């Protein structure tokens, strides 16, 4: 069966890292039909929108989307992101964002004295509502009385599905689920979240649940990452915690993610956690590891567990032996790392 994979390279370093992820997948010799989508900030400058009107239907005609990054100084960020990634996540109802945090051997952590044995947890980020519901507005623009409202929206059903999925993942791992909220200060949405966590815990005898305030969790993630197994958090908290997690696993270039609607046949969207990195774009020095790792998550989701494993082993071998890009202590270019992963894949097959 041929996998129909849409590719949205996007802006900045997006195309640079996605090219290497494709190279690595192609080296696996699977039947993959790639469709490259020219959407993003350049498309906006020509068409006045980030994606065509029927973009979601186009995506629904594929089995997966591999995404690079979006964001360019020429387009206001909220227009660029609400016109692409956020629209895709919400429009396809991809409610779970999985972000594995593992320090691969050979990669230096931002935490001194920590090695791969200390860093192996998974963040499950709520991905369609909460602080990213997109509900709000502005009025009295330009006056001193100007008002801007940004309303968080937490639904029982929305919280329940992501919390339950996180419990299932914890049950399949080391059996600890850490739920992050800020229900001491925000007294509605996060209190509902806490209640749903308590209710759901009753269904999962084998999972130890801890409720932690997100500020304390941020500190603990740095101080004692080894104490974490699965973390479940709201949209904004999951976003912030996974940039900390990325630093712990070697930097923004290392972190991968999968946007999923578990239990449905909706396509998954796979993307590195990092953005378009305008500060290094066009120099050929971006780390493609997060994009390659995301491609491995994609293959797993497409039912290619063996190929996904081979790709991950190839990435691990290259991290261990080099070449590495400069953000993780090497001197290699993006393409040199991608070539090395593709070679390692061929050697494994
Ligand atoms: P960023 O992740 O692009 O960059 C943060 C830092 O990490 C920079 O110093 C950058 O050089 C470094 N970095 C990022 N990716 C790297 C890689 N692959 N290899 C080595 N270093 C890497 O975040 P930002 O600067 O806050 O945002 C830049 C733009 O990207 C903004 O427009 C933002 O809205 C957008 N953004 C998009 C996504 C996405 O498309 N998924 C995610 C985050 C930010
Ligand atoms: C991420 C990014 C996005 C987010 C931005 C670009 C909207 O930071 O995927 O982590 O906040 O979800
Ligand atoms: Mn982010």
Rg estimate, integer Å: 20 Å
Taken from the alpha-carbon principal axes, the silhouette is globular
Q: List how many beta strands DSSP finds.
A: 12
Task: Enumerate the spans where pLDDT stays under 50 for 5 or more consecutive residues.
Answer: none
Defining traits:
binds manganese (II) ion, 349 residues, alpha/beta, binds nicotinamide-adenine-dinucleotide, two-stranded antiparallel sheet, globular, 22% strand, binds 3-isopropylmalic acid, ten-stranded mixed beta sheet
Describe this structure in words.
This protein is an alpha/beta fold and 349 residues long. Helices cover 40% and strands 22% of the residues. The chain has helices at 14-27, 41-47, 55-60, 77-82, 85-91, 156-172, 189-201, 214-223, 235-248, 289-301, 305-321, 334-348; strands at residues 3-10, 32-36, 64-69, 96-102, 120-126, 130-139, 147-153, 176-181, 208-213, 230-233, 256-260, 268-272. The strands form two sheets. Strands 2-1-3-12-11-4-5-10-8-9 form a ten-stranded mixed beta sheet, sandwiched between helices. Strands 6-7 form a two-stranded antiparallel ribbon. The radius of gyration is 20 Å and the shape is globular. The two termini are 19 Å apart. It contains twelve helices and twelve strands. Helix 6 (156-172) packs across helix 7 and helix 11 crosses helix 12 (334-348).
């Amino acid at each position: 069966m041929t996998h129909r994979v849409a590719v949205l390279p996007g802006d900045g370093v997006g195309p640079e890292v996605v090219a290497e992820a494709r190279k690595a997948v192609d080296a696996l010799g699977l039947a993959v039909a790639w469709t490259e989508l020219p959407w993003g900030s350049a498309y906006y400058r020509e068409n006045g929108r980030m994606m065509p009107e029927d973009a979601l239907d186009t995506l629904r005609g594929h089995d997966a989307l591999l995404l690079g990054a979006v964001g360019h100084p020429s387009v206001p960020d909220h227009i660029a992101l609400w016109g692409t990634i956020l629209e895709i996540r919400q429009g396809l109802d991809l409610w779970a964002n999985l972000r594995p945090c593992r320090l691969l051997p050979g990669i230096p952590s931002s935490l001194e004295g920590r090695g791969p044995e200390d860093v192996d947890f998974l963040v499950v980020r709520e991905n369609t509502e909460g602080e990213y519901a997109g509900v709000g507005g502005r009025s009295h623009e330009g006056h001193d009385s100007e008002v801007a409202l940004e309303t968080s929206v937490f639904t029982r059903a929305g919280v329940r599905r992501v919390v339950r999925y996180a419990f299932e993942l914890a049950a399949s791992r080391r059996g600890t689920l850490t739920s992050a909220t800020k229900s001491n200060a925000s007294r509605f949405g996060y209190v509902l979240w806490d209640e749903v966590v308590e209710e759901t815990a009753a269904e999962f005898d084998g999972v130890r649940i801890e409720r932690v305030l997100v500020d304390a969790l941020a500190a603990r993630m740095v101080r004692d990452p080894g104490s974490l197994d699965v973390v479940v958090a709201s949209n904004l908290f999951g976003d912030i915690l996974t940039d900390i997690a990325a630093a712990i696993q070697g930097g923004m270039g290392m972190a991968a993610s999968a946007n999923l609607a578990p239990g449905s046949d909706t396509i998954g969207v796979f993307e590195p956690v990092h953005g378009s990195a305008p500060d290094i774009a066009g120099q050929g020095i971006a780390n493609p590891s997060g994009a390659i790792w995301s491609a491995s998550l994609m293959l797993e989701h497409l039912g290619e567990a063996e190929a996904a494993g081979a790709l991950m082993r190839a990435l691990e071998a290259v991290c261990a032996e080099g070449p590495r890009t400069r953000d993780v202590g090497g001197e290699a270019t993006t393409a040199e790392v991608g070539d090395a992963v593709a070679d390692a894949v061929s050697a494994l097959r």
